[in-house]
Amino acid sequence: MTTPFTIERIADHVGERVTVQGWLYASTHKGKLLFLRLRDGTGITQAVAYRPEVGDELFETLVRLGQESSLIVTGTVRANEKAPGIPAGYEIGIEEATVLQNAIDYPIGPKEHGIEFLMDNRHLWLRSSQQWAIMRVRATIKRAIIDFFDDRGFLNIDTPILTPSAAEGTSNLFEVEYFNEKAYLAQTGQLYSEATIMAFGKVYCFGPTFRAEKSKTRRHLAEFWMVEPEIAYCDLDELMVLEEEFVSYIVQRTLEQRAAELELLERDLSALRNITPPFPRISYDEAIERIQAIREATDDPELKENLTIEWGDDFGSPHETELTKQFDKPVFVYGYPTAVKAFYMEPWPGRPEICKSVDLLAPEGYGEIIGGSERMSDPDVLLAAIRRHELPEANYRWYIDLRSYGSVPHSGFGLGLERTVAWICGIDHIRQTVPFARTRNRLTP
Ligand code: 4AD
Ligand code: MG
After folding, report:
1. What would the pLDDT profile of 291-300 be if each residue is shown by its tens digit?
2. With a 6 A CB cut-off, is 189 part of the ligand 1 pocket?
3. pTM greater than 0.90
4. Ligand 1, atom 20: nearest CA belongs to which residue?
5. Pick the CATH number of 7-101 from 2.60.40.2000, 3.20.20.140, 3.20.20.60, 2.40.50.140
6. CA torsion, points 426, 243, 417, 177, in degrees to nearest 10?
């Protein structure tokens, strides 16, 4: 059986007669020649109609087609180094064509549109080449994530989306009515993965997570995908080694498989090629000193204002952005103040004001893509933390149990898929990295 023709593989079909089932991306008309740019979902190619060959009737029909008309074209593939496309350098000489629908007045044209208009038309905008490229990169990153963990003996264990209580703070929970009780959409699968590592050793969960983020930023979605590996008998140092290998693997795999898409997005590929272990490691204490030094040195009053920070404060986007500009690789910041992090993180030995947490901040100003930590392994220390955070103790009984029956040092992290896609694609807003973004002010389409 021969596999059906796709534009993606056009280079393998030079000289062959092929059929494309697709849509019209654009067209230009010069005398007896008509150049159609056809897309089939896998790529874009030029299809050329020559009036004396296709006849007047078909030629006129094709000339009148609007952008995004659906049609089936049959013709012979030839190399033409001047032909645009993804991949470029090939075209199809049209012999036959059937129009399924002539699309009239497609709302998205080559002219500039405002972002809200494009987001309102997201169901159509996904057909545009840049959005198409981003989604192809996203799919490759998802595949790389799964392969990385599967190849290293992690078991993929799913965690629930409906949960009785919070794990990542109570201020951004989505509440739902669960029969006659309150439930919340999961902010993370981590707590459940801590249970499953005691059964399976190394696990990961990978799925949608939810945060009712009140603020509108370039980095926050209300629904986003997170991959969360969790490992028994793993400390903070071992966790960082795993993270740098993981992130490097994703980046290099994407470069191998999606270079054309990244080039279409005008991504600087050399910056990505540089992403290999080891990554720099700095403590929170050092990060504060560095940010304060940047603040001292700048003449920009607005930046000075935005970089105001004292030991004990959490980082905001401007702090992360300026700090990461000092490095050409992702940078680990470890040992954050206990007060700004989630309740479950292991205290730093001898310094209870900080914890065994580590964030990974992406370069080029992208900021935090991973949050992780070593987890508390002592049941009494954990219970005290749950009380300090005023969490409903009864809902966490099972979680404390994990520390009562064969407790071990253990660690894990969560990588946000959309922030990773934004960084690898080099696009500045996270809303374009997910097919249908969910944000404070958007639930449609
Ligand atoms: O740092 P966070 O909140 O960590 C956790 O949820 C841990 N339970 C993970 C773990 O240790 N298993 O979130 C982890 C990552 C962030 O670094 C970021 O990439 C992403 O999830 N993230 C978001 N992405 C998009 N929109 C949001 N609102 C996000 N909140 C977190
Ligand atoms: Mg975080």
Report:
1. 999 999 999 9
2. no
3. yes
4. 416
5. 2.40.50.140
6. -150
